Amino acid sequence: MTSPYVPLVVAVLLVSCGSVLIRLAAAPALVVSFYRIALAAFCLAPFAAAQLPSSWKALAPRQRLVLLASGFALALHFATWVASLSYTSVAASVLLVNTAPIFAVGFSRLFLHERVPGVVLAAIGLALVGAAVIAAGDWTGEAGSLGGILLALAGAVTLAAYHVVGRGLREALPLNAYVLGVWGVAAATLLAFCLVGRVPLGAYPPRTWLLFLALALVPTLGGHGLVNRSLRSLPAPTVGLFLLGEPLGASGLAWAVLGEVPGSWTLAGGVVVLLALTLVLLRRA
Q1: pLDDT tens, residue by residue, 219-235
Q2: Fewer CB near the terminus (10 Å): N or C of the chain?
Q3: SS3 letters for the chain?
Q4: How confident is the model at residue 192 (pLDDT cuts 50, 70, 90)?
Q5: For residues 44 and 39, what is the distance between their CA atoms, to the nearest angstrom?
Q6: How many structural domains is the chain composed of?
């Protein structure tokens, strides 16, 4: 029998490809985000469409609103984080967006009134210091650079909101139906953003379309699909600890493919952030 850790390791490798594929696509952030999630939902639909109508009818009105809010938060996550990669290094962007568990703890305390142990509060403070070091090292002194840093942090906040809002809903729906529902809402939201912003949805070269498809299949369907599967057999903190490998994998790929070498401040801040996140996840375990 295959160890449940094997697909989790593969998931980390696949998810790590996302930031480099986004850079290679060289298309507007909203367009990249829309096609990534829309094509992934389209590929998943044959396996989940039959479950969705009955699953939707079984949901209470409040749960339906939660599903819509969760998909909207996911759309905001992709829109902000993908945009950050146009202004910051891959290493800084991925490290900052991976502070999402820190914000998730804050949301859980604020809205769900969950108790936060002192160790976790200390780890949150440590993570924020690390994030400040990463931001200082990545800031070039230009407004665009600062905007990229803020966009990456906004991606972390909205990803945390997506996880906290959807908590409990994953158990109320079959996995494929839940994912298709959330991805469908996210895709519709991103399409609306594109239309309102008059961002062109076509006239891209074949290479860009292939990269859109690769983003849908590799990090989204493959990577996040395996993460969702792993959450059915492994504790969430364990899965979270493994996913801390994404910044390392993404930075390594950016170095190999894009020739992007992380600066010393980014590396130092990254070590601090990863240590803090490890403390948070171990305490949750």
Answers
A1: 999 998 888 778 777 77
A2: N
A3: CCCCHHHHHHHHHHHHCHHHHHHHHCCCHHHHHHHHHHHHHHHHHHHHCCCHHHHHHHCCHHHHHHHHHHHHHHHHHHHHHHHHCCCCCHHHHHHHHCCHHHHHHHHHHHHCCCCCCHHHHHHHHHHHHHHHHHHHHHCCCCHHHHHHHHHHHHHHHHHHHHHHHCCCHHHHCCHHHHHHHHHHHHHHHHHHHHHHCCCCCCCCCHHHHHHHHHHHHHHHHHHHHHHHHHCCCCCHHHHHHHHCHHHHHHHHHHHHHHCCCCCHHHHHHHHHHHHHHHHHHHHHC
A4: very high
A5: 9
A6: 1
**Stated pTM of the model:** 0.90
Nearest alpha-carbon partner for 274 in 253, 247, 251:
247
Let me know: does 269 contact 225? Beta carbons within 8 Å: no
Angle between helices 18-25 and 245-253 (to 10 degrees): 40
Closest among 128, 129, 135 to 93, alpha carbons compared: 135
Residue with token string 């158990």: 171
